[in-house]
Request: fold
Amino acid sequence: MFARKTAANAIRALSMDSIQKAGSGHPGAPMGMADIAEVLWCDYLNHNPSNPDWINRDRFVLSNGHGSMLLYSLLHLTGYDVSIADLQSFRQLHSKTPGHPEYKYTPGVETTTGPLGQGLANAVGMAIAEKMLASQFNRPGYDIVDHYTYVFMGDGCLMEGISHEVCSLAGTLKLGKLIAFYDDNGISIDGDVGGWFTDNTVKRFEAYGWHVISNINGHNSEEIKDAIEQARYVNDRPSIIICKTVIGYGAPNKAGSSEVHGAPLGEAEVAATRESLGWLYEPFTIPDDIYSYWDARSIGKIKEGFWNEKLKSYEALFPKLAAEFKRRNSNELPVDWSKNIRLYIEALNDSPASIATRKASQNVIEFLGKQLPELIGGSADLAPSNLTMWSGSCALNKDGVGNYIHYGVRELGMTAIINGIALHRGFIAYGATFLMFMEYARNALRMSALMHIRNIQVYTHDSIGVGEDGPTHQPIEQLANLRTTPHMQTWRPCDQVETAVAWKSAIERHDGPSALVLSRQALPQIPRCMEQLLNISRGGYILQDSIGKPDLIIIATGSEVSLAVAAANALAMEEYQVRVVSMPSTEIFDKQNIEYRASVLLPDVTTRIAIEAGIANFWCKYVGPDGTIIGMTDFGLSAPADVLFSEFGFTVENVLSKARHLLSH
Reply:
């Protein structure tokens, strides 16, 4: 017992010293959860510090990410490439140890956490991915996918609504290899949570269908170990281990209070804590015997070695399955992908159809589903409206069989779960809802952009074209919100061809999320030559041009592109030279070289109009001071779509009026 407590005290010491040196941080959770972490990481966690990307490693997620020094201490002690110098650089510029754990910054960090509950949701996604992969690739005697997902979480994670969304679904899907540890210390930033958080957590999780282990002394190694054994024994539902802990355990004057939650202990309290814990070493000093106790490199290599041998035997018996397993876990697309998607898009271009882009998207998904066995779909209870199912869609069941997840009305949970699936690897996941309700999913979508991971969101019902549903369902500012998010790629296609190109871009992208913004109403297909077809992927291109130098450039997206073409044709009858630019992805267009952008938006043609049924002022940078914008400056109204488009000026007559005014000055 003394050895275990001493090992746990190494976490406490490194955490309080790093936070004290940084002058900021959260020592309470690392010190309070150190004993739980010691048992889990030393006795159960299968991982290899020398290879943080080992496919069959257990996943560990610190959902209460403010306690990041807990994770950094664990990574350092067990042998990851996280040095004492890195711990001494906690929260400093460009260090491996940022204030909250960040994916790809620190070896061994599985996901970026900080916004409470997000890590828990990611863990649910990882557990879903593990279960699906196991169902697809495991064979009798060859469980090549066989790992747990462990998540630490605090009071704040359970207060956030996302915890309800994802834990409810996790229970329904019976994710038996998901084990959550709840740090039940009763303290948050504002103090004792009894004034605002009195949920019966046991009954709550029992109602979700979880296996609940309660009243565990989070500072008693034997109780913690027994609880983990129970959780691992129950494999037909997720488990939550509710651990009673003291926040800031070991700090004689501040433990158990909000003072230790989010601020350094202070030099005097650090010294007193050392004495209280019997930790007689200088700051950032760990004795060799404690390092030896924690070091997981040798056993990690052995565990991965055993798994590699199993994989070799599996490969000999099931060569095609093994090749597919490796391909998918390497995020590689099938060898014939590029050729097949090119031929598909060219065929669409040669087969005009006036359909809603949400229907065009469904047609593309039908094609993708037959090309990509790793494609996993889903919708937040809007599949018939989002049109996200295809003929081969099969609802995911409790055995992990299926390729379509019915998320229920859980937009935020859905998006964060998809982040977890992407982080786990082995799948390409997409989710869907109305564009308006990306607001609910906003934080998780931002996290995918921050982590540079693939998360594909299908957002239908893209404008006031929603019509009679009214302003509560009519997105106005959401497009600008998406487009101004770093590393996000937003597509608003004008027809089936641009929709297919948008899907191609999203599938091929590995370094960030994509939003496909699609119409409810039918849109006509615009004729294109091969050069124009190729230029769609550049985000913006000349869709229809003038004979000579343009007098006017009209820029449009989505449902407004056909309006721009109609207006340009009318102006041509008045002998004006008009260029129409379709710009389905402003972010991609902005990344093109200056020569290409200048060839599309001629710098010396300052007479410009931008048309989009979204917030107007986003387009100022494209039209300049001499241009005008036909867009939204207020919320919509409830009325049939055609009435609304007329009411807000999305008509040929209004475009002509604005154009004539510009051209006459």
